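Figure 2 data, in text form.
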Amino acid sequence: MDETVRSSSPTFFHTHRPYHLCRSGAETAVVFIHGFMGSPCQFDPLLPMVLDAGCSAVGLLLPGHGGRARDFAGSGMAAWQEHVDRALEALRRQYARLLLVGHSMGCLLSIHAAVQQPSQLSGILALAPPLYLRVSLQGLYDNLRVGLHWIDPEDARMAIAVATCGV
């Protein structure tokens, strides 16, 4: 598993990278699983709370995310679930307790992992679980602008789109 320590949040262009912030002596790891087209950096605001509680924090980057659209197009749900399963298997050897925090599609990946290995997880926090998929023209346009780097740094909406879009 890639380990990256974040010293501060990037200003505008976020680095969509996985991380493993180890707390000395931690028995619990909080594992963040982003959603469709997301990235681990969307959980950055939660990191101080997790670390202050004495837990380690792990942000997974799902295959195809954090890079080019071509990479994203070549990935899918099976690869994402396999990535989560392998990461959790490795973390179980290091921590007594794993808490999963999933956002959107990350909720589905978390629930699937819990169904497969219910005794291996201490809990799930599901943030915005998908009940249905709604695609808007504005959302498509914003993601296209991010992908093509047609971004005005003064546009707050685009700053949010850049921060949350990992493709």
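Caption note: The mean pLDDT is 87.
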